[in-house]
Specification:
Helix content is 38%, strand content 21%. An eight-stranded mixed beta sheet has the order 5-4-3-2-1-6-8-7, with helices on both faces. It has 15 helices and 13 strands. The protein is of the alpha/beta class.
C-alpha cells in the first residue's frame, strides 16, 4: 500500500500524519512532538488510543527519526510515496503546491526573515524527510498561497512602488486552514460559499480572512505573521513608530525587537502569565482579564474592518484551537456585533457546527491543515507517475 506522510515543523514542535494514498487520503495515525531541543514529548493518536512518551530530540532530524520509530508498527506493508510539508511563506510567486527541488528550497530559504519562527524549521523538516525518504516526492504547501490574487489595494502598503515590486507587500497566512474550511463550506453550506464570510482562525497564531465566493479578498495578517490580531506570544497590529522608538531611544537591536514582538508579546506580554488562552481563562488576575479584553476587542475590530472589505456579511466561521474550543471567547467576540446580524444561541455547542440564532450565520468548523497537504501530495504523486 502507498502512504503519504505530512509534516508541519515549527520552532520546537513537529506535527505529523500518516495517510493511505487516495483521492481523499485516509488518516491512519497522527500526532506531534512538542519541546524539541528541551524536554521533548511525543504524542501519537491511533483511533481511540493515545500514547505519550518522553523522548530525546535535539533537532528536527532527531524528531522525525522519533516519529518514524513510533510509526514503525503502523507502517508494515506501507511504502511512503510522498511527503508533504507545510511551508509558511511562499512569497509572491508560489501560489500552489510544488514538488521541491534544491533550487526551490534555496528560493524558499530567502523568505526566512519574513517568518523567522517557522520558515527555517519548515525547511529543516524537508531536509530531514529527504534523508529518510530519498525516493519519495517532497511537496511544499504554502500558508500564503490561498491569498494570492488579492486586489492590489489590499496587498500594497503606501510606500514607493519599487518596494512592492521587490516583494514588500501583504501576503496573508493560515492559508491551508482557510483552504480546508472553505472546501467544507462549499460542500455543506453552498449558499454561504457563494456569499460573503469571515473565517476566524484563532489559535496560538491567529488571523481572520475575508472570503467572497470562496476566494480570499482580505486578511488581517500582512507582510509577516506578526500583523493583525494579538496571538499567544506575537503582538499583532503595532504602529511601526514603536519599532523605531525601541531601536533609536531604547537602544534595542533588531534581534532584540524580533524576540520582543515574536516571543514576548501578545497574550503572554499583556498578562505576564501565559500565552495560552486556557490558562488565562482559568486565572482570576486583573492582568489575565485585561489580556482577554484586548484580544476580544481586536477580534471585534477586525470583523468590522473585514465586513467593510466584503461590503456586508453572510457568515462568520470559527476554527483553530481557541475558535473551536473556547465558547466563552466566541460569545464575547460576537457580543456587540448584533448590528451585523451576529447572535450566538444559548445551547450547548459541543459537537455542534451551527451556533448562531441571528440572520448572519455563525459556524464552528474544526480545521484540518494536514488533510489539505495530503491531498496535494496525492495529486503530485499521481502527476509524476506518468
Amino acid at each position: 500500500m502507498s502512504g503519504i506522510l505530512t509534516l508541519n515543523a515549527g520552532s520546537s514542535s513537529l506535527k505529523f500524519g500518516l495517510y493511505e494514498q487516495a483521492d481523499d487520503p485516509s488518516l491512519l495515525v497522527h500526532g506531534q512532538i512538542d519541546g524539541i531541543g528541551q524536554n521533548a514529548q511525543l504524542i501519537l493518536h491511533h483511533g481511540a488510543t493515545t500514547v505519550r512518551d518522553q523522548i530525546r530530540a535535539e533537532t528536527q532530524h532527531d524528531a522525525l527519526q522519533s516519529v518514524m520509530n513510533a510509526l514503525a508498527p503502523h507502517m508494515r506493508g506501507i511504502h511512503i510515496a510522498g511527503v508533504g510539508h507545510r511551508v509558511v511563506h511562499g512569497g509572491p510567486d508560489f501560489a500552489a503546491p510544488v514538488v521541491l527541488t534544491p533550487e526551490i528550497q534555496r528560493a524558499l530559504a530567502e523568505f526566512s526573515p519574513l517568518a523567522p519562527l517557522h520558515q527555517p524549521h519548515n525547511l529543516a523538516g524537508v531536509t530531514a524527510a529527504h534523508d529518510l525518504f530519498p525516493d519519495a516526492i517532497q511537496v511544499a504547501c504554502f500558508d500564503t498561497a490561498f491569498h494570492r490574487g488579492h486586489p492590489w489595494v489590499n496587498d500594497t502598503f503606501a510606500i514607493p512602488n519599487v518596494l512592492y515590486d521587490e516583494g514588500i507587500r501583504r501576503y496573508g497566512f493560515h492559508g491551508l486552514s482557510y483552504d480546508y474550511v472553505t472546501d467544507v463550506i462549499a460542500r455543506d453550506f453552498p449558499e454561504l460559499h457563494a456569499g460573503r464570510m469571515i473565517v476566524a482562525h484563532l489559535g496560538n497564531g491567529a488571523s481572520m480572512c475575508a472570503i467572497r465566493h470562496g476566494k480570499s479578498v482580505g486578511s488581517t495578517m500582512g507582510f509577516s505573521a506578526l500583523d493583525g490580531l494579538p496571538m499567544g506570544t506575537r503582538c499583532g497590529q503595532i504602529d511601526p513608530g514603536v519599532v523605531l522608538y525601541l531601536m533609536e531611544q531604547k537602544g534595542m537591536t533588531s534581534h532584540d525587537v524580533l524576540s520582543l514582538l515574536y516571543k514576548q508579546s501578545g497574550l503572554l506580554g499583556l498578562s505576564g502569565i501565559s500565552g495560552d488562552m486556557r490558562t488565562l481563562l482559568q486565572s482570576d488576575t486583573a492582568e489575565a482579564k485585561r489580556a482577554i479584553d484586548y484580544y476580544v476587542f481586536r477580534a471585534r475590530r477586525e470583523i468590522g474592518a473585514l465586513t467593510a472589505v466584503l461590503g456586508g456579511l453572510d457568515g462568520l466561521v470559527f476554527c483553530g484551537g481557541i475558535g473551536e474550543n473556547a465558547g466563552v471567547i466566541r460569545k464575547r467576540i460576537t457580543e456587540g456585533l448584533e448590528y451585523l446580524g451576529l447572535r450566538i444561541n444559548g445551547a450547548d455547542h459541543t459537537n455542534t457546527r451551527e451556533i448562531g440564532c441571528g440572520p448572519t450565520r455563525i459556524l464552528v468548523i474544526p480545521t484540518d491543515e494536514e488533510r489539505v497537504i495530503a491531498r496535494a501530495v496525492h495529486a503530485a504523486v499521481v502527476a509524476n507517475s506518468y
